[in-house]
Sequence to fold (154 residues):
Amino acid sequence: MRAYKILMVCLGNICRSPMAEGVLRNRIEQAGLKIIVDSAGTADYHTGEAPDYRAVSVLRKHGIDISGLAARQFNERDFDDFDEIYVMDQSNLNNVLTLARSEEDRLKVRLILNTVHPGLNRSLADPFYGDISHFEAVYAQLNQAAAAIISQLK
Fold:
């Protein structure tokens, strides 16, 4: 049987989605679940790069290490490889859905903050142009979302 797999997606895969990957992986380990988590970006701006140093710093402060991750671009095969795809904002939702080949693909994709605020379709703000406090705010929201995802998976 294939392992359950979750993908986190943002624009460049150096801030929000690797943070989401790290936070959810941490929660999964704490819950003793066997789920694979990965992340990707809809753009290829940072392919191969490590996460933003501020994202690494904030997560390290919370006991999570994402320094070894490398950015990659989302592609159509991700629909085949992942059971759930969480996007960070409306723009990335649209970009991912544009690549969907079927209704089955489309049904895998959802906004991450809908796990905490169902149906409100809120976007998770991109902290890239902000200071460390913006990354802390993203961490707090991702921590809530990860808890909600774990709760749904149990």
